[in-house]
Structure formats: structure tokens, C-alpha cells
């Protein structure tokens, strides 16, 4: 077997803090699932062909998704509603959005996936260049780091756009240049990721949070904040600890959106979990895979290990598949997955969930699924 | 050549415009000092009175500039004194500049 042709440019060295990385991710064609080979097919491969096939599977499993889960679909519908309704004239500030959820629920994945679709739609409708001849960048994304100040924030915007004067200048100059980029490149969405890194109580935090209000007023963009526990950190506070009420306008103009974990407390939700298991099962490329490997055999196990957090689940499936390929097991089962480590929060919650699973206090399987499994077992 | 980043705010050169004039226009529309724009376009590290690139662009400079600004390499070449190559005294200056 010859090495499969690479159908997609390498994306692993991209940074989303630059326009080129964002565009390349948005325009990348979907990955092509490697052929499913049987154990006999695998054994018949020569060393070089086997190495190539395994490399292809490693990349595939490491890049499963994003999955159109009910949570992702609902969040994206809200994002489309708000962003598309923000077409007021320049004198009216746009409503902002805060996507506020715990880690591992896929909020950044969902927002970036939305942003890529928005980018493609706008470029498709309006072209890569504006009427004035400037580059068109419908989306700008800035990731925050700790203790970022206003000048750093504006500089990050300039870095995204590759403005030639992003290395030197005063705070006021950086701000003006950032505004020029947003206006001239006709940017409509500004994503501020990892907002929880901002220290709201510090001088820089106050400065930047006030700056968001300025951006909402002066920049014709929809701000999308993404972060963890934004409410308790003060994003929607009407005033800060010192009584400064400048935050109040940000609070009034920001629509909070969230994403929850999968639940299994009724049949409708268990069906959603099962659909997720089926989606993954279809995409796993292991020689000893069998129908029901995830949806029937491992459904409860995966739920107990990940407490329904999509991020933890994708990590566990990815690492499990890598191990199954490396060790030659070529299937996922509890023994193999028990040896795979994932995040500490999931491991902590797992102990309690597994105890209650053993006591049969819950299951992730639908009523119909349980009957089917029972019949198979009896047969 | 490392990865060249394109500049977001564009200004097309007008017919017959010299390279240094156009760079000034680009700097103005970006609210940026000319030195920073020249750096971003791969023309940094040179004095600004009679810079060498106003006389002739090296192939790598021309390529960098074309990618970064979206202006065709042959158009850029015609914006330097090289268009007068072979016509009188300019030839001697050009030979020195492109080395």
C-alpha cells in the first residue's frame, strides 16, 4: 500500500492569534477518514505502508470533531442570531456576547467553529478585499494572557492583522491603528478568548474592562467574550469593588450564553449521549472495532470517566485510540482505557460516579438500548 | 525567506509613481513611521536618504514586497530607477546597487 496523499495542509503549527492561521483553519478542507482495514489487512501491510497507515490514523484520531452536539448547535444558533442582528448603524453600540462555561465543555471549539463559518460566509458574499482595496477580515481573535494591559490588548489586535507598526508606538497610537484595522478590514466579530486570565481587580484589569466598553461604542463589531466563571469574576457587575460604575454598560449590553455537559437523567438526554457515542464509533479507525463498541459496551464507562464533558471525552477517545494502535490492541475496552490518563477534574468526579454506577443508580443507555443489549446478551 | 505577512491596509501605486513615494503613502494610510513599514516589507536596515531599493530591488526584496502588498513584481520593478537601465549614467549606479 502506498502512503496516502496528504489531502490537507499541515495545520499543527498554526496560531489563531494571526489572521493567516485563522484563515487556513477556516478554509482547510475536511479531513478524509482513513480506510478501515481488518486485522488480516493490517498484517499483510509492509513495514513502510503500515507506518504510513498508522501515522494517518494518529492524525485522524487527534483531530476528530468538532461534533455538532446539541450544546454546540444551540450555542451557534444563538451566536448567529445575535451577530446577524447587530447591523445597527455606527452610532448605536452593538450587543456583546459572553460564552461562559466550565473548562472541557467545548466553548472555544464551538465559538471558533462558528467564527470560521462566519468568515467563510462573509468572504464568499463580499470577497477577500473590501471595496476600498483593503484585506477583508470578518473575524479577529485575541487570546488573553495574565496581567494583560490595554496597550498589550491593542497590540494583540495589530498582531492578528499584521499591521506594520505593531512593534512600536504609544498606547494611543496602537488604539488608533487597531480601530483603523477593524474599520478598514470591515471586521464584524471580535473574539476575546480566555477572558478569565484578566485580573479584574487590578489596575490593568479595570483598564481593559473599561476598554471593552470603548470598543463596544467605537468599533462596529460584536464582541464575543469566552471564558470561565465570567459572572463571578465581575463581567456583568454593575460596579466594581471601588464603586466604579463604568462596568454597568458592559453588563447591560452583554448577553450571557453557556454550554452544559451531557446529562443522562432522562431518555431524551441519554439518546443525545448515545448519538454522540455512535458518531464517535463511526469515526474510530481500529481493525478490531465492532458495532456497539462504544454505544453499547463503553457508554456508561465513558460517561463515568468524563462526567459528560465533551473535552474530556475527546481526549480519552483520542488517547485510547493512539494506545490501541501503538500496542496492537486495535479496539477500545475498559482495560485499555483504564490505563489512559485524562484531566484531574474528570478523574476526581469519576470515583463517585463509578460507585453509583456499580450500585445501578444510573445508566447512560436509553430504555430501548438497554432492551437491545439484554436481547443480545441472552441470544 | 521566512513567512511573509501581508499588510492589511492597502494603497495601490498610481501610474508612474516611484517606490519611495508609494511607501510613504502606505505608511501614511497605516499611520505608521516609514521605517516600520519598510521593516515590515523587507526593506529595513537602510538609510532613508537615497535608499538602495529606490534604485533597484533585489529579487528577494521584490518577491517579499509583492507578497506583502499584493502588487505585481514587474510593477514594483518599474517603480525603481531600474526602468532606466541601459540609458546613460544610471547603468553604473544600478550595477553598484544590485550587488
Which properties best describe this structure?
heterodimer; A: 379 residues; alpha/beta; Rossmann fold; 5-stranded parallel sheet; 16 helices; 5 strands; globular; disordered N terminus; disordered C terminus; B: 99 residues; mainly alpha
SSE layout:
The complex is a heterodimer of chains A (379) and B (99).
Chain A: H1 19-27, H2 39-44, H3 47-62, H4 70-85, E1 96-100, H5 107-126, E2 139-143, H6 150-161, H7 171-184, E3 189-193, H8 203-218, E4 222-227, H9 230-233, H10 247-253, E5 254-257, H11 267-283, H12 293-306, H13 310-327, H14 334-338, H15 344-358, H16 367-378
Parallel strand pairs in A: 1-4, 1-5, 2-3, 3-4
Helix pairs in contact in A: 1-5, 3-13, 4-5, 6-7, 11-12, 12-13, 12-15
Chain B: H1 19-29, H2 34-40, H3 52-55, H4 59-69, H5 73-78, H6 90-97
Helix pairs in contact in B: 1-2
Description of the molecule:
- The complex is a heterodimer of chains A (379) and B (99).
- The radius of gyration of chain A is 24 Å and the shape is globular.
- In chain A, helix 11 packs across helix 12.
- Helices cover 53% and strands 7% of the residues of chain A.
- Chain A has 16 helices and five strands.
- Chain A has 379 residues and is α/β, with parallel strands linked by helices.
- Chain A starts with 18 loop residues before the first helix and ends with a helix.
- In chain A, helix 8 links the parallel strand 3 and strand 4.
- Chain B has 99 residues and is an all-alpha fold.
- The radius of gyration of chain B is 13 Å and the shape is globular.
- The two termini of chain B are 19 Å apart.
- The chains are: A alpha/beta (379), B mainly alpha (99).
Amino acid at each position: 500500500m502506498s502512503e496516502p496523499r496528504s489531502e490537507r495542509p499541515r495545520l499543527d503549527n498554526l496560531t489563531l492569534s494571526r489572521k493567516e492561521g485563522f484563515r487556513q483553519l477556516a478554509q482547510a478542507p475536511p479531513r478524509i477518514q482513513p480506510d478501515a482495514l481488518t486485522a488480516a489487512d493490517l498484517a499483510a501491510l509492509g513495514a513502510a505502508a503500515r507506518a504510513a497507515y498508522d501515522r494517518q490514523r494518529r492524525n485522524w484520531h487527534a483531530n476528530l470533531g468538532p461534533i455538532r452536539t446539541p450544546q454546540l448547535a444551540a450555542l451557534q444558533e444563538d451566536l448567529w442570531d445575535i451577530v446577524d442582528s447587530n447591523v445597527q448603524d455606527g452610532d448605536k453600540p452593538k450587543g456583546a456576547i459572553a460564552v461562559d462555561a466550565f473548562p472541557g465543555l467545548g466553548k472555544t471549539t464551538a465559538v471558533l467553529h462558528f467564527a470560521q463559518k462566519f468568515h467563510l460566509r462573509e468572504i464568499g458574499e463580499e470577497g477577500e478585499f473590501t471595496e476600498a482595496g483593503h484585506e477583508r477580515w470578518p473575524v479577529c481573535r485575541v487570546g488573553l494572557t495574565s496581567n494583560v494591559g490595554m496597550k498589550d490588548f491593542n497590540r494583540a489586535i495589530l498582531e492578528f492583522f499584521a499591521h506594520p507598526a505593531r512593534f512600536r508606538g504609544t498606547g494611543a497610537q496602537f488604539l488608533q491603528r487597531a480601530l483603523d484595522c477593524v474599520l478598514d478590514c470591515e471586521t464584524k466579530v471580535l473574539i476575546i478568548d480566555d477572558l478569565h486570565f484578566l485580573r479584574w481587580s487590578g489596575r490593568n484589569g479595570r483598564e481593559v474592562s473599561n476598554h471593552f466598553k470603548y470598543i463596544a461604542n467605537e468599533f462596529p463589531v460584536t464582541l464575543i467574550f469566552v471564558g470561565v466563571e465570567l459572572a463571578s469574576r465581575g463581567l456583568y457587575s454593575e460596579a466594581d469593588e471601588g464603586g466604579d460604575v463604568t462596568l454597568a454598560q458592559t453588563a447591560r449590553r452583554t448577553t450571557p450564553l453557556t454550554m452544559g455537559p451531557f446529562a443522562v437523567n432522562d431518555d431524551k438526554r441519554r439518546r443525545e449521549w448515545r448519538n454522540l457515542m455512535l458518531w464517535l464509533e463511526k469515526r474510530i479507525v481500529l481493525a478490531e472495532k465492532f458495532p456497539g463498541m462504544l454505544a453499547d459496551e463503553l457508554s456508561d464507562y465513558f460517561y463515568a470517566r468524563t462526567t459528560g464533558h465533551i473535552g474530556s471525552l475527546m481526549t480519552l477517545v483520542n488517547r485510547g485510540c493512539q494506545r490501541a494502535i501503538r500496542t496492537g490492541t486495535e479496539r477500545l475496552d475498559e482495560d485499555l482505557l483504564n490505563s489512559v490518563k485524562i484531566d484531574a477534574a474528570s478523574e476526581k468526579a469519576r470515583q463517585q460516579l463509578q460507585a453509583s454506577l456499580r450500585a445501578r443508580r444510573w445508566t447512560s443507555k436509553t430504555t430501548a438500548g438497554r432492551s437491545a443489549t439484554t436481547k443480545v446478551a441472552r441470544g | 525567506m521566512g513567512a511573509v505577512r501581508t499588510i492589511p491596509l492597502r494603497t495601490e501605486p498610481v501610474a508612474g509613481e516611484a517606490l519611495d513615494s508609494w511607501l510613504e503613502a502606505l505608511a501614511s494610510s497605516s499611520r505608521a513611521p516609514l521605517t516600520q513599514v519598510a521593516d515590515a516589507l523587507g526593506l529595513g536596515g537602510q538609510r532613508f536618504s537615497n535608499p538602495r531599493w529606490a534604485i533597484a530591488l533585489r529579487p528577494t526584496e521584490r518577491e517579499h514586497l509583492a507578497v506583502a502588498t499584493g502588487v505585481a513584481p514587474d510593477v514594483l520593478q518599474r517603480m525603481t530607477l531600474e526602468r532606466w537601465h541601459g540609458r546613460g549614467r544610471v547603468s553604473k549606479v544600478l550595477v553598484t546597487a544590485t550587488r
